[in-house]
Amino acid sequence: LNDKVEEKESFIKNVIIRLSTLFKKEEMMEELNDIKNIQSEMNKLVVESKEGLLKMIKSYVENMKLKEEQAIEELKRSNSKLENQCEKSAAYITFLKEGNDKYRQDIDSLQPVSYTHLPSPRDLSTSRMPSSACKKKK
Q1: Cα→Cα distances 13→27, 79, 126, Å
Q2: Looking at per-residue confidence, does 124 or 15 come out higher?
Q3: Hey, CA dihedral for 9, 10, 15, 20, is it positive or negative?
């Protein structure tokens, strides 16, 4: 009887060991499945992050292209204004040169005047000196 009880105890122990091993395997399988699910979710997040990052980069590049085009247009407008100002300045310089040449010709045609050798236009019979200057001192 003791042998049979021991045998049954041994059998029960073996069953318990096997069951605990199975439970451990099931727990491990569940944990492994959980890990796989977590990895899958992480992969999805990585893909979504990459897509989001690509969208941000594309948006940034498009924005920079737009700003570049606006800057080019502004430079073209400024260049046009500068060209217009240069044309006006060139016309003004030409006007000044023509005026300068005309005045230079006028100046070149003038003759020097000597104030010491010109005859007086007044009547020489009357003196311009005051009468008191003409009196002699005694």
Answers
A1: 20, 97, 166
A2: 15
A3: positive
